[in-house]
Design brief:
alpha/beta; 2 domains; 10 helices; 12% strand; seven-stranded mixed β-sheet
Length: 285
């Protein structure tokens, strides 16, 4: 089964890319990554996460690329800031479309990302597991995690990054915003930022709340923008800093970084609106 899925992925890759060497590299990387994730599925139960097939992940990626090109046009800013090594991607959270938006915006393989998702949402419904598990990798986290469950989640995150070279998506707010406004970041986000010892990339998503707000299931057309910020190194505490003080500082720094990206979006929208009014007044004068 693994060979067939990898072979399917490479056929698609060969049609979209030129050159025999590119095709062979695609086949080798896809087969290796799928083999690793298959082994993880055998070793761990559903409580540790679920891992998408190569074919399912690629199909979802191709769909999202078309969706965010034609139905909800996606604009990506500062993509060049993304590190080559594994990183933790943290953004505001207003919509179920956010993860698809972020993975599409990176321009990288969906198979190389895992979402740290709420266990009471993704893992307690067989129907949702059946719908999501073939398409994307998800690692469970309790909304109010104890020491044991948090340790298990961190261990699965480390294993995913070490064995696949992939990156993680985490929403520091802990849940989707009802009104589209950014909520306070939870302190647990700081623990992931410090314990995983990888760069933390802040991001801000604009427009996802409009196309698919909380409580809705059919997306509406509309533009979406993703802006990436400079990677943050947060693993090392400051001299004399206690773990609690470090977590507080990390949450404040991450909140500030994401809000700055939000402010830039809002400033550009205001500038564009102001310019439009000036042009309109000149036209009518």
């Amino acid at each position: 089964m693994g060979f067939k899925r990898a072979r399917f992925t490479c056929i698609v890759g060969r049609r979209s890319e030129s050159g025999n060497s590119t095709f062979l590299r695609c086949r080798a990387e896809t087969h290796n990554l799928f083999s690793i994730l298959t082994a993880m599925n055998r070793q761990h139960s559903l409580h540790d996460g679920f891992w998408a097939s190569a074919a399912g992940s690629l199909s979802f990626q191709r769909f999202c690329q078309a969706f965010f090109q034609w139905y909800c046009p996606l604009t990506v800013e500062e993509r060049h800031l993304l590190p080559d090594e594994p990183f933790l991607l943290c953004s505001n959270h207003t919509s179920h479309a956010d993860s698809a938006v972020l993975m599409t915006a990176t321009g990288r393989s969906f198979h190389s990302f895992a979402l740290i998702g709420a266990s009471d949402y993704f893992f307690r419904s067989r129907r949702l597991r059946w719908a999501v598990s073939p398409l994307m990798n998800v690692i469970p986290i309790d909304r109010e995690p104890g020491a044991k469950s948090l340790s298990a989640c961190l261990a699965t995150c480390r294993q995913f990054m070490q064995q696949t070279g992939g990156s993680l998506i985490l929403y520091p707010e802990g849940t989707r915003s009802q009104d589209g406004e950014m909520r306070a970041f939870k302190s647990g986000a700081a623990l992931f930022a410090t314990e995983l010892d990888v760069p933390v990339v802040p991001a801000y998503i604009e427009g996802a709340h409009h196309i698919l707000p909380k409580g809705h299931y059919l997306p509406r057309p509309g533009p979406v923008t993703v802006r990436f910020g400079k990677p943050l190194e947060m693993a090392c505490p400051l001299p004399g800093e206690s773990p609690r003080e470090q977590r507080r500082r990390v949450v404040e720094q991450l909140t500030k970084s994401v809000r700055m990206l939000s402010a830039r979006v809002e400033a550009e929208e205001l500038a564009a609106e102001s310019q439009g009014k000036v042009i309109a007044s000149q036209f009518h004068s």
